[in-house]
Amino acid sequence: MAKHAEKKRQEDFGTEFEEKVLYINRCSKVVKGGRKFSFSALILVGDGQGHVGYGFAKANEVSDAIRKGSESARKNIFTIEMEGTTIPHEVYIEWDGAKIMLKPAPTGTGVVAGSKVRSVLELGGVKDVIAKNLGSNNPLNQVKATFKALQGLKNRQRYMAERKGELAHA
Question: What is the pTM for the complete model shown?
Answer without folding.
Answer: 0.85
